[in-house]
Amino acid sequence: MTEYSDSELIERFRNPEGNNRHYAFNLLVRKYQQKLYHHIRRIVVDHDDANDLLQNTLIKVWNHLDNFREDSQLYTWLYRVATNECLGFLKQKKRRFFLPIGDVESELAGKLIQNEVLSADKLELKLQQAILSLPEKQRIVFNLRYYDEMKYEEMSLVLGTSVGALKASYHHAAAKVEKFIIGA
Amino acid sequence: MNTNLPSDDELSDLKHLKSYSKKEPFNAPDGYFDTLTSKIQDRLSNERIILSEDVKAKRPIFIFATILTVCISAGIFFFMINANKPQQQEVACSYEDLIESGYYIEMDENAIAEKLIASNPINSKEDQAIEDYLINNSDESLLTNQF
Fold first, then answer.
1. How far apart are the first and last CA of chain B?
2. What pLDDT, in 10s, does the model give residues B126-140?
3. How many DSSP H helices and E strands does chain A contain?
4. Dihedral sign from CA coordinates of A143, A147, A148, A151
5. N or C, which end of chain B is more exposed by having fewer CB within 10 Å?
């Protein structure tokens, strides 16, 4: 299959002729579905929640891609939509069940243990538990840097935070994770 | 995405974290990504149908709400017009118009005073005695200072 650039995909999506819109969107989904899925899954842990949030993210992308100004990269915009969707989901969860932040995190930690693949790999499970012990935003910063290897400048566009603050946040997070691993 | 990032340098003093292999911690179920595009397309077409049905279902409500809004707006508009009308008439009427209409009669104050004196003359003996007493027994300068 021909790999189109982001701007080509957007151009095809915006072209009203024929079935271009659906075709271009399918290509866009195929190009980014795995990255977005893993980004979302690392935040919400559960596959069903990740599936719902990924679908909601992509529906929002479909609805708003016409208005996307290409002054930022498509993939940072996609990550921003997905991140906002996840943060909204976690916020709603806390509000709906009147749960303090710690309870949501312990619920997510419980889901980690239920995960068969993770529970078989003790080292990996420990790392995930360490990451889950981080505050919500710090956890997202850590994941974006550690797993997605995203540049701080791009991360700044995703999270709307300054590069300096993100660097500090990542270093604090990494130190906490290290401490957790040693201590656990 | 840039893969030549200094993440190893950043983690140089974090021995334990560095020792981990960076693999995705979670896996999607088999075949999940093969079917995602069709699921999204299904949802998009369902949302379009739901949206159009929703609009159809809400159409009578929209019409009723529009009519109600128009009626209330018209009522307020006419009420405001009527509330302003008397003020405008007062301003528009001149004295001549009022006199002509018979609601306003211009009177001379002197004529009213003369009429009152004529209808109530100081003719009783008691009144005359009081008047005479006051004229004869009061100091004029004191009266002037008093009043």
1. 103
2. 777 887 887 787 777
3. 10, 0
4. positive
5. C
- Report how far Cα B72 is from the mean position of its chain's Cα atoms: 15
CA nearest to A120 within chain B? B25
Residue of B23, B25, B44 with shortest CB distance to A62? B44
CB contact under 8 A, A118 and B44: no
Contact A174 B10 (CB under 8 A): yes
Q: Where are the alpha helices (DSSP H) in chain B?
A: 7-10, 15-18, 32-92, 95-101, 109-119, 125-137, 140-146
- Window A:13-42, CB contacts with B under 8 Å: 22, 25-26, 29-30, 33-34, 37-38, 41-42
Question: CA angle, A108 as apex, A102 and A112 as ends, to 5°?
Answer: 135
B27-36: Cβ within 8 A, 24+ apart: B27/A117, B28/A34, B28/A37, B28/A41, B28/A47, B29/A47, B32/A37, B32/A51, B33/A30, B33/A33, B33/A34, B33/A37, B36/A29, B36/A33, B36/A54, B36/A55
Contact B64, B71 (CB under 8 A): no
- Nearest CB neighbour to B16, from listed A55, A59, A182: A182
- Dihedral sign of CA atoms A136, A140, A146, A147 in order: positive
Which amino acid is it at A76? Answer: T
What is the value of pTM for the model shown?
Answer: 0.66
Q: State the ipTM, two decimals.
A: 0.82
State pLDDT tens for residues A135-181.
Answer: 989 999 999 999 999 999 999 999 999 999 999 999 999 999 988 88
Provide the residue type at A156 as one letter: S
